[in-house]
C-alpha cells in the first residue's frame, strides 16, 4: 500500500457536472472581456443557456461568488478613469460592437467645459420619427468630472427606447440648447425634422424654458411623478413629514394638492381654493407655508404640469435612475441593447383603470368636482404594500 509516491494509476471518470461548471465560468469570463453588460446579467444568460441539472446547480458558484474574479478579468481591459473631463476616447469606444459610429458629438464649450453625445444612426432615426419624446437626467449616476447623464428617449411600438446619451458638465440652459441645436442640424443632414408633437421632461429649471423656445410647436408636459416628488420634497423641507405620516386630515389635503395635476384644467384653481379653505380649518394652520409655496411656484403655469385626460403622464418608467446605464463611453450593439423600457406593469394599469373610471363618472355627472378630487387623491402617493 502506497501513501505517497505511488506509481500506480489513479484515474477517475470525467465528472460531467464539473465540466459544465468550468464551461459556464469560462463563458462568463470570455464575455466579460468582450462585452460591457453587467456581470450578473451575463451570469444569468449563461446559466439559462447551460444544460444544468440539480447537481450542477448545487455546485455552481453564485453570481456574488463569481463576481470578484470576473470583475478582475474585465478591469484588465478597461482604461483607467480619466483625471479630468478632457481625455482621449479610445477608437473602440467610439463605435458600437458591430463597428458602426456611436460617438455623435465631442465638443469643448466655454470655460473648459466638455459635451459628449452618443447615438447610433438607427437610434437617431427612431428619435426623429417618434411623435413623443421623453427627456430625463441623473446626477447620482454620472461619471467623475461630469455633472449628469442626460438621456433622450423615443417611443416605438409603445416601448420607450433611449436614443441619445449625453455627458454634461453642468445643467445650464445654454448646454441644453446646444444639444437640441445639434440634434436639429443632424436631423436636417439626414433629411428629417426633429420636431416631436409632445415632449415630456422633469422640472429642471434649465430645461423648461429651452424646450419652450426650441420646440414652440411641441406640447411640453412635465412629468406627473416628478410633480408629486417636488411637492413631497417641499413637505420634507418644511418639516411636515411627521404630520404627514400621523395626521390623516393633513395627509389627505397634501395628496389632493398632488391630485390637482389630474384634475380638469379649468377646475384646478377652484379645487386649490377648496383645499385652502379646508386647510384653514386645521388647528394652527400647519399647511400655510406649503399652500403659499404651491401658489407662488405652480399656479402660474398650470399647463406645464396638468396632465388631465393625457395617456402619457409620467416619464418615471424611463428615468435614468432605473436604467442600466452601461452605454456611457462604452460599446453597445445598438437599440436592442440599450435598456428598452418594458410596457406598463399590472399596478400601473390598475391605477390607470381607476383614474379612467373616475373621469367617466365625472363626465356623466355621477360625481361632482369635489368627489373627483377626493377620488384622485387616493391614487397618488400611495404607499407600497
TrEMBL record:
Pfam family, one: MULE
Record keywords: Membrane, Transmembrane, Transmembrane helix
Domain MULE transposase: 132-229
InterPro entries: MULE_transposase_dom
Transmembrane segments: 149-169, 362-381
Coiled coil residues, start to end: none
PANTHER family assigned: MULE TRANSPOSASE DOMAIN-CONTAINING PROTEIN, PUTATIVE-RELATED
The name this protein goes by in its record: MULE transposase domain-containing protein
Amino acid at each position: 500500500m502506497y501513501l505517497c509516491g505511488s506509481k500506480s494509476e489513479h484515474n477517475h471518470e470525467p465528472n460531467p457536472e464539473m465540466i459544465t461548471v468550468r464551461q459556464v465560468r469560462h463563458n462568463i469570463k470570455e464575455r466579460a472581456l468582450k462585452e460591457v453588460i453587467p456581470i450578473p446579467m451575463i451570469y444569468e444568460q449563461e446559466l439559462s443557456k447551460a444544460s444544468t441539472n440539480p447537481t450542477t446547480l448545487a455546485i455552481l458558484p453564485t453570481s456574488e461568488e463569481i463576481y470578484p474574479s470576473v470583475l478582475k478579468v474585465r478591469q484588465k481591459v478597461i482604461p483607467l478613469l480619466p483625471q479630468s473631463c478632457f481625455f482621449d476616447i479610445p477608437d473602440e469606444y467610439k463605435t458600437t460592437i458591430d463597428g458602426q459610429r456611436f460617438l455623435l458629438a465631442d465638443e469643448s464649450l466655454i470655460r473648459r467645459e466638455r459635451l459628449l453625445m452618443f447615438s447610433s444612426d438607427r437610434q437617431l432615426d427612431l428619435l426623429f420619427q417618434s411623435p413623443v419624446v421623453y427627456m430625463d437626467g441623473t446626477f447620482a449616476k454620472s461619471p467623475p468630472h461630469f455633472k449628469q447623464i442626460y438621456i433622450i428617449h423615443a417611443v416605438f411600438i409603445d416601448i420607450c427606447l433611449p436614443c441619445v446619451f449625453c455627458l454634461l458638465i453642468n445643467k445650464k440652459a445654454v448646454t441644453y440648447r446646444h444639444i437640441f441645436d445639434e440634434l436639429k442640424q443632424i436631423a436636417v443632414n439626414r433629411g428629417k425634422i426633429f420636431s416631436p408633437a409632445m415632449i415630456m421632461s422633469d422640472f429642471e429649471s434649465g430645461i423648461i424654458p429651452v424646450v419652450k423656445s426650441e420646440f414652440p410647436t411641441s406640447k411640453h408636459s412635465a412629468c406627473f411623478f416628478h410633480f408629486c416628488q417636488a411637492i413631497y420634497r417641499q413637505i420634507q423641507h418644511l418639516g411636515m413629514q411627521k404630520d404627514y405620516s400621523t395626521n390623516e386630515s393633513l395627509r389627505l389635503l397634501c395628496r389632493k394638492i398632488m391630485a390637482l395635476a389630474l384634475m380638469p384644467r379649468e377646475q384646478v384653481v377652484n379645487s386649490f381654493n377648496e383645499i385652502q379653505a379646508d386647510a384653514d380649518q386645521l388647528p394652527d394652520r400647519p399647511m400655510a407655508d406649503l399652500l403659499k409655496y404651491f401658489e407662488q411656484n405652480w399656479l402660474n403655469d398650470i399647463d406645464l404640469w396638468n396632465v388631465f385626460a393625457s395617456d402619457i403622464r409620467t416619464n418615471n418608467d424611463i428615468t435614468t435612475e432605473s436604467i442600466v446605464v452601461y452605454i456611457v463611453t462604452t460599446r453597445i450593439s445598438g437599440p436592442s441593447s440599450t435598456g428598452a423600457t418594458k410596457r406598463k406593469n399590472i399596478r400601473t394599469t390598475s391605477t390607470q383603470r381607476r383614474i379612467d373610471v373616475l373621469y367617466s363618472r365625472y363626465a356623466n355627472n355621477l360625481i361632482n368636482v369635489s368627489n373627483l378630487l377626493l377620488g384622485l387623491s387616493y391614487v397618488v402617493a400611495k404607499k407600497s404594500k
